[in-house]
Each structure stands twice: as structure tokens, then as C-alpha cells.
Write a structure and sequence with these properties.
7-stranded mixed beta sheet, enoyl-[acyl-carrier-protein] reductase (NADPH) activity, NAD(P)-bd_dom_sf, 16 strands, Quinone Oxidoreductase, Chain A, domain 1, NADP, alpha/beta, ADH-like_N, disordered N terminus
């Protein structure tokens, strides 16, 4: 081979390598600088190209590809506006069974606030990162990871993993994948409220099209999901909300989602309820997210043998069950906590996957939308926390990373 041919071969090889190098950069897998590769000989370039091709295909590394990570930490329990701080976080190496996740969006839920205040049923060790829900994208996987690949959207399988951060390294078993063809805000708010709603509508009464469900806190994230999932199944909903200045606008919005009836708390104790039940049957299922007198009134309107499921207690008052409801109507009083459901089904991949697939199908069909959301950057977390703690709020506060 003459000198001209050698030069031509070297030029073509270097050009091929640079093309591979560009692809590696786009995939986010490049860990060496361009100038370092340009200084290599053609023989070294061949070895480097093969090595980089392997990294693009598998996407593993002992050194994290995300250099800078920030998160919302709290070191003590208390008022979220005082104890939550934005801090830098050092990520651990991506081990063989670990996954590096770049967080995309994470909402602020009431349970998150209660955890920070120290009043929730489960409390992580301090210091910790806030947030129990959110969606991220896989940026890197360990050599023993089999179910996930770079680019997958994932959500936490359980609570307590700390989603208010830009990136995190988790075990593969702590994550479950989602299709990336659903809206970002739907994915970010999927694992708590819609999962709570669909389980309560499925697990306590065998509801058929034409049956009725009554619920308080109908404007909450769970309440809105209940309305939409029930409507998709042909089930009527009687939705109880607190009186407020914009009641008509709220009523119109809930009915646009599929609500059959929207009534005020006071209406539960009035004769108008008899007229309402002329247009739809008495409910077989009551969903209580408030407690106190509101829960008692829900019980009074159940069918004989019906079930009331309590999943929240916003009024911070105990549930009082009338003796007559137990004796003469044989009502059942149950509780539900989606975190416990996930723990009980942690080894049942079919149940978790089936639930998420059903919800994603409804989302794609336009039958399940997220609640109204207000987006905030991580730097604006104080504003987001303050808004999340306001009464009568209709919007979910979501941190966009």
C-alpha cells in the first residue's frame, strides 16, 4: 500500500470514528473529551470505537454520567418553608444492579408535606430528600440490570425514595417503567392519586355500569381521578365539595370530567338528596377523604350492605359510625392506603403492571387527565411549597427538573 493509500485509509477511519463519537455524545455516554480522541493513533481509534460502541449498547459505567445533582433536603421536621433547603447531592457510583435516573418532574402531595412536618405514618431517616412521586428517565444502567434500558421513563415503585432532586441512583427493583408516549404531567402524577382511585373503585365493591359512588373531597387529585375512571366504566358519581366563591366554575369543571352530580357538604343533610336519588341509585360505595361529619353523612346515603372506604382525613376529625347504619343497613367500614397496597403486591409484577397499563390506556384515550398543574423550577421550591399548603387550592404544584 503506497503512502497516498495509507493517508486515505487513515482519513476515512478517523472520519468514521468521529461519526461514532458524535453518536456517543448524543446518547449522553461520552466520558472522554474530543481532543483526547483526536490525539489517538488509528490503531487506538479502532479499539476506542469498539469500546464506545459497547458502552452505547449497554450503557453501563462505574462513574456516574450526571456530574451535578441538586435536591430539596430537610434535616429536621417542621414547617416546610423553614426546614426544606436546596442543596448539592453527591451521587454514588452506578453499581451492577443500580440505575441512574435523571428526574424530569415531581409533584408536591399532601403526604409529602405531612412527612416533612413529621406527622405521616412512615417517616424516613433524616436528613432526607423530599417527594414520593415523580417521573424520571434512565440515563445509565449497571451491568446486571435486565428490565430497564437507557431512555426508559420510570416511576418509583414505593414511597420514601426522595423524588425532589435532579438525579438519583436506585436499585432496578425500586423502579417500574412507563410508556413515554403519555404526557409528562400525567406520568409525574400517576403513581399516587390515580392508583388510589382505581384500587378503591375495583377492590371493595363489584361495581357495574349504572351503579353509583359517592365521595367527598371530590376536587382533590384522588377525587378527580375517581370521577374520570368511574365515568369510563359507566359508573355514576355523586361528588361532594366544600362551598366556595367559585363553586359554579368548579362544578362545571368536574362535570366536564364526567361527574354526574356535584353538591355542597350542606346538601348531604337536606331533603334535596331524595330528589337526587330519583335520577340515580343510592351508592354502593362511599369514598371518604375528609372524616368527621362529612364521613358520617356519606354513610347515611349508602345502600344496605354498602361499603365506605376511608383514604384520608383532611378534617383531622374521627370517623363516627351511627349504630343504626351498622345494625339496620349492615354497612362495611374499610380503610385504604396505596403505600400498603404496593408493599403487599411488591412481588406481584402482574398486578402492578396491569394497573398501570389500564391507567395509561385511559390516558391515551383522553379519558384520564392529570389535575390542573402549576409548574415550578426547582429553584422556586419555596413558592411551590407555599402554594401546595393553601386551602381550596385546585392546582397540583409540580417541580420541573
Amino acid at each position: 500500500m503506497n503512502g497516498a493509500n495509507v493517508s486515505c485509509f487513515a482519513f476515512k477511519f478517523i472520519r468514521l470514528h468521529k461519526r461514532e463519537l458524535c453518536r456517543a455524545r448524543i446518547a449522553g455516554q461520552l466520558c472522554r473529551t474530543h481532543s483526547q480522541h483526536d490525539s489517538l493513533s488509528p490503531g487506538h481509534l479502532l479499539l476506542s470505537s469498539r469500546y464506545m460502541s459497547h458502552r452505547i449498547h449497554r450503557g453501563y459505567s462505574s462513574k456516574s454520567l450526571v456530574k451535578d445533582c441538586r435536591g430539596l433536603l430537610y434535616r429536621n421536621h417542621g414547617d416546610p418553608s423553614h426546614v426544606v433547603k436546596l442543596e448539592s447531592i453527591e451521587l454514588p457510583p452506578v453499581g451492577a444492579d443500580r440505575v441512574l435516573v435523571k428526574m424530569l418532574a415531581a409533584p408536591i402531595n399532601p403526604a409529602d408535606i405531612n412527612m416533612i412536618q413529621g406527622t405521616y405514618a412512615i417517616l424516613p431517616d433524616l436528613p432526607t430528600v423530599g417527594g414520593n412521586e415523580g417521573v424520571g428517565q434512565v440515563a445509565e444502567v449497571g451491568s446486571q440490570v435486565t428490565r430497564l434500558k437507557v431512555g426508559d421513563w420510570v416511576i418509583p415503585r414505593d414511597a420514601g425514595l426522595g423524588t425532589w432532586r435532579t438525579a438519583t441512583v436506585l436499585r432496578e427493583e425500586d423502579l417500574i417503567s412507563l410508556p413515554s408516549d403519555i404526557p409528562l404531567l400525567s406520568a409525574a402524577t400517576l403513581s399516587v392519586n390515580p392508583c388510589t382511585a382505581i384500587r378503591m373503585l375495583s377492590d371493595f365493591e363489584d361495581l357495574k355500569p349504572g351503579d353509583s359512588v359517592i365521595q367527598n373531597a371530590a376536587n382533590s387529585g384522588v377525587g378527580q381521578a375517581v370521577i374520570q375512571i368511574a365515568a369510563a366504566r359507566g359508573v355514576h358519581t355523586i361528588n361532594v365539595v366544600r362551598d366556595r366563591p367559585d363553586l359554579q366554575q368548579l362544578t362545571d369543571r368536574l362535570k366536564a370530567m364526567g361527574a354526574t352530580h356535584v353538591i355542597k357538604e350542606e346538601t348531604l343533610r337536606r331533603p334535596e338528596m331524595k330528589e337526587l336519588f330519583k335520577t340515580c341509585p343510592r351508592p354502593r360505595l362511599a369514598l371518604n377523604g375528609v372524616g368527621g361529619k362529612s364521613a358520617t353523612e356519606l354513610l347515611r346515603h349508602l345502600q344496605t350492605g354498602g361499603t365506605m372506604v376511608t383514604y384520608g382525613g383532611m378534617a383531622k376529625q374521627p370517623v363516627t359510625v351511627p349504630v343504626s347504619a351498622l345494625i339496620f343497613k349492615d354497612v362495611k367500614v374499610r380503610g385504604f392506603w396505596v403505600t400498603q397496597w404496593k408493599k403487599d403486591h411488591s412481588q406481584d409484577e402482574v398486578a402492578a403492571r396491569g394497573m398501570l397499563d389500564e391507567l395509561c390506556t385511559l390516558i391515551r384515550a383522553g379519558k384520564l387527565s392529570p389535575p390542573a398543574c402549576t409548574e415550578h423550577s426547582l429553584q422556586d421550591f419555596k413558592k411551590a411549597l407555599d402554594a401546595a399548603m393553601q386551602p381550596y387550592t385546585s392546582a397540583k404544584q409540580v417541580l420541573i427538573m
